[in-house]
Amino acid sequence: MRNAGQRASPRFVLLVLPILLAGGAAFAENIDPTNNGSQYAWAENLGWINLQPNGPGGDGVQVTDSGLTGWAWAENAGWISLSCQNTSSCGASAYGVTNNGSGTLGGYAWSENKGWINFAPAGAGVVINGCTGVFSGRAWSENAGWITFSSTGPSPYQVATSWRRTCSDNNACTTDTCNPATGCVFTNNTNACNDGNACTINDTCGAGTCGGTAITAPPETQILRALTKATYSWAAATFATQYDVVRGGLGAFPVGPGGAEEVCFDNLLGPSLSDATVPAAGTGFWYLSRGENACGIGTFGTQGVHGTPGAPRTTTTCP
Ligand SMILES: [Ca+2]
Ligand SMILES: [Ca+2]
Ligand SMILES: [Ca+2]
Questions:
Q1: Nearest bound ligand to the CA of residue 186
Q2: How far is it, in rounded angstroms, from Cα 155 to Cα 21?
């Protein structure tokens, strides 16, 4: 914006601002983030309105998801308040310019010399592009006429903010982006995800939802072998991520109910166990293994009764 310095007298601004802000809340402005003069609106009966009158970081206009706060300056109308929060006066007169969260503005600003400025008049209105921060459209003041926030005409101008709308659908299976022409875009992805179901694995996004391959608790482990007198192994059980082994004394058979002479080797990472403990002379140990995973705990199998399955082997020795 050319001649910006001449439009609003910096000296006058600095003298007036502290008086206006006395007793009120101060807000940090977020207008003209790239410092290219994107801070002027044009009022047909007032001339330029500066939304960053005190320079970067000053007490200009701040855009948030819910509305605008702070001050604009019109050389021919003085200060314009964007919100009653500026002077902590909302109890007496609640007003302010609102943001619907995606950049459509509404509500009113107050000019001490020109009265109310309507940001959503019939047939017009002011919108911030939530993907670029650029204002467009018009507000209406009974006493100042139309106020235009951007123009691509022969002398282009615009107001811009660093505020951006939040594009989120709270779905990890879509990638959220902001398209200046169309707004938020949510595109299905194929990322790894978590469907919250412990009985599915390899959870992956597809068609915008998260799912995995169904699993069960591991089946009974099979083929327990003593490789040496102190090393045991068994066949890996389907879906098992870890194993438990219970050791007991042959004299205390059958398995369970738990505790007593039984010993737990808990959460073994593979299908094998080393146990150097030697049973007392004339006695022996039994070993039982089972698989575990996040979906459930496998069984220790059933007691054999003359070659046919009997009651399940249960013991509380291993968690
Ligand atoms: Ca998403
Ligand atoms: Ca899962
Ligand atoms: Ca365990």
A1: 1
A2: 33
pLDDT at 26 (0 to 100): 61
Going by pLDDT thresholds of 50, 70 and 90, the confidence category of residue 25 is low
Rounded Cα distance, 84 and 65, in Å: 17
How far is ligand 3, taken at its centre, from the CA of residue 230, in Å? 21
DSSP state of 159: B
What SS3 class is residue 157? strand
Rounded distance from Cα 86 to ligand 3 centre (Å): 62
Give me the residue label for tokens 């007032």: 46
| Residues whose CB falls within 8 Å of the CB of residue 219, separated by 6 or more in sequence, listed in order | 237, 238, 291, 298, 299
The predicted model scores a pTM of 0.72
The angle subtended at Cα 265 by Cα 264 and Cα 270, nearest 5°, is 150
Helix, strand, or coil (residue 294):
coil
Cα separation, 32 vs 51, whole angstroms: 9
- Is there a contact between 31 and 53 (Cβ–Cβ < 8 Å)? no
Q: Are the CB atoms for 260 and 247 separated by under 8 Å? A: no
CB distance 108 to 119 below 8 Å = yes
Calculate how far, in angstroms, residue 288's C-alpha sits from the geometric centre of ligand 2.
29
